[in-house]
Automatic annotation (TrEMBL):
This is Retinol dehydrogenase 13-like. Keywords: Oxidoreductase. Pfam families: adh_short (PF00106). It comes from the Eukaryota. PANTHER family: PHOSPHATIDYLINOSITOL-GLYCAN BIOSYNTHESIS CLASS F PROTEIN, PHOSPHATIDYLINOSITOL-GLYCAN BIOSYNTHESIS CLASS F PROTEIN-RELATED. Signal peptide: none annotated. InterPro entries: NAD(P)-bd_dom_sf, SDR_fam. The keyword Nucleotidyltransferase does not apply. The lineage of its organism: Eukaryota, Metazoa, Spiralia, Lophotrochozoa, Mollusca. Coiled coil: none annotated.
Length: 260
């Protein structure tokens, strides 16, 4: 249940990695592990540099995520989990696609979870369509899996691979912005006793590291990997190609990237 540590020795000299949410938790460990593997590597921990400053992008890791009981919408009027966990990454990926294609062979990784098994995709992402926060979070992570699947299909002849990964149950501060009335949940999720039940950010980063580095996965795309760093079955909801295509069309409309 603890997972495996990636032991590959691949280098990233001269490569560029873009990773979201690199300031804490799994993202920070992933960024540091990748950065120590190369000279002249630019690892953007929080996208603080303009995208246009980068000549190439070899690896894009869509890692950032929120889990919150706060039903306040994003500035764009979207349900917060979908806005941050899905639409933000969809837009970023679209903006970087030309650089990823030009840098091929390149890789795109979506850090997801297993919660999408529970509910099929619900396409009403308005904040007034109030969902239980755990369902909303699961929907956003299902969106990651479906987006990876659809994008992989669209990039089939480009030598850009796209995969999704579940890091496992990780002890991080993801619940830091829960409202006070969820204080018991926050206390539980942030409790040091969770080290007995949850994996460390270091272990949580290992599946992502394998997808980013392992040469044996150079031609693997459109797949879902579990926390044991092996290809897994994403279930019926995660392999619904009609839902993936519909979500893609909606996401293009929301992010205004349909003509890209």
């Amino acid at each position: 249940m603890r997972g495996v540590v990636y032991t590959g020795t691949e280098r990233l000299d001269g490569k560029t990695v873009v990773i979201t949410g690199g300031n804490a938790g799994i993202g920070k460990v992933t960024a540091l592990e990748l950065a120590r593997r190369g000279r002249q590597i630019c690892t953007q921990l929080s996208l603080s540099l303009p995208i246009s400053d980068e000549d190439r992008v070899d690896i894009l890791i869509n890692n950032a995520g929120v889990l919150t009981g706060n039903k306040r919408p994003t500035e764009d009027g979207l349900e917060r989990h979908m806005g941050v966990n899905h639409y933000g990454h969809f837009l970023l990926t679209q903006l970087l696609l030309d650089k990823l294609k030009a840098s091929a062979p390149s890789r795109i990784i979506f850090v997801s979870t297993w919660l999408y098994f529970v509910w099929p995709m619900d396409f009403d992402h308005r904040p007034q369509n109030k969902k239980w926060f755990f369902k909303a979070y699961g929907q956003s992570k299902l969106a990651n899996v479906l987006t990876a699947r659809e994008l992989s299909r669209r990039l089939k002849e480009t030598n850009v691979t796209v995969n999704a990964v579940h890091p496992g149950f990780i002890h991080t501060d993801i619940a830091r912005d829960f409202p006070l009335y969820y204080s018991r949940i926050v206390h539980f999720l942030n409790s040091p006793f969770n080290s007995l039940l949850f994996r460390t950010p270091f272990l949580g980063a290992q599946p992502t590291l394998r997808l980013a580095l392992d040469s044996s996965l150079a031609n693997v795309s459109g797949k879902y990997f579990g926390f044991q760093s092996e290809e897994s079955d994403p279930g019926w909801a995660g392999t619904d190609d009609k839902a993936a295509a519909k979500l893609w069309r909606i996401s293009e409309s929301v992010t205004k990237t349909g003509a890209m």
